[in-house]
# Entry
Amino acid sequence: MELITTYICKKFDIGVHENMFGGALMSLIDDAAGSYASQICDTPRMVTIKFDELVFKKPVKVGNIIKIYGRVIKFGISSVELYMEVRKHNVYTGEQEIVTHTNVKFVRIDEEGNAIPIPDRLKTRYERRLKEFGKGLLPAGEADGERQIETLI
Ligand SMILES: CC(C)(COP(=O)(O)OP(=O)(O)OC[C@H]1O[C@@H](n2cnc3c(N)ncnc32)[C@H](O)[C@@H]1OP(=O)(O)O)[C@@H](O)C(=O)NCCC(=O)NCCS
# Structure
């Protein structure tokens, strides 16, 4: 699993019980998962098709730092399913508590909004990156290095 997003809970995220509003948290998860899916699949055209159950196990308060982690569970033909985990991060101890977790599925679409296949090359690239680098997203330098290797092969 890799870190995708870090966020500080603000006053405007709070609902009626002094806790972060569940809908705001869902939106953050969708954002993190969507951006991860887009980068893994090399396209901005990814749409959310399915959100699994979300159970909010711990409250998030103003000033809490939350970190959203994710990984690919499986690729389909046009879809990719991700496991997403939200953790509260204690800046003093580094300890983390799971706030919630869920699976989210995205579909790659074309200009008309129709589902289209995710190239096999990108699926194997993800597996290779996980094996070699321990993560699916790479900083520009590493990604460039990888591309050079890919073009040499
Ligand atoms: C995404 C969309 C184009 C797919 O259209 P569709 O007619 O369902 O397409 P398909 O039947 O070819 O299915 C496409 C993929 O979605 C998956 N899928 C479809 N319905 C599903 C469901 N109910 N649950 C889980 N997966 C589903 C299929 O398994 C398929 O995956 P695969 O190609 O990896 O096998 C269409 O449903 C859509 O536009 N949805 C709205 C998306 C949206 O607005 N999201 C919110 C904002 S991003």
